[in-house]
Amino acid sequence: MKSAASLLVPAIICQLSPAFGADLPSTKVPEPVAAVVSPWDFQVGAGLTTNYIFRGITQSNKNASVSANAELRLNLSDTWQLYAQAAGYSIKLTPFNPNPSMELDVFGGIRGTFGNLTTDVGVYGYFYPNDPNHPKLSWVEYYGKLGYNINDMFNVGFNYNYSNNEGDTGASGQYVSATAKITLPIGFAISGEYGHNFLGTTNRLWTPPLTDLPDY
User: How far is CA 121 from the centre of its chain?
Assistant: First the structure.
């Protein structure tokens, strides 16, 4: 009897061992799934200002102005980003009516980031869709920007804009400026810009012909 019992025990263990193995949890670690980041980005915004000033000249007759904007971005790499933006502003160019009540800006270009240095090159279009005096009033300029982050709080920049039809007058225009910005830890920022506009000679019928526009 003793020998028969000793022969049965191994047989029973062999039959039960597969069941025990199936009940044990798997020790295999699942492979991590890489996160898919879309290269596209979209941003919208709105603003309210007490006086819409464009290069030192009021565009809202020294009154309040509301604005809205939307920008579409495509990140080509960690360095380059394509973008296109549309922005609308309520304006009042003169105290007299009729005059355009809206400025529509459409622009786009490519931004670059090289460490603390940033670049931005593009084309800017200014349109006044509801101007009763000049239905086709519009003009285009080209721009280039440089920015440098001195540290997390302080940024400086340089801007250059060129147009061969400043303000739809037919006069050439070159605008250069320097900027500075301080970002405060409470979520606010203080910024300033100092610039100069170099203007040429008009040649449009609705402006005084061959008039040298003053620089400012």
Answer: 12
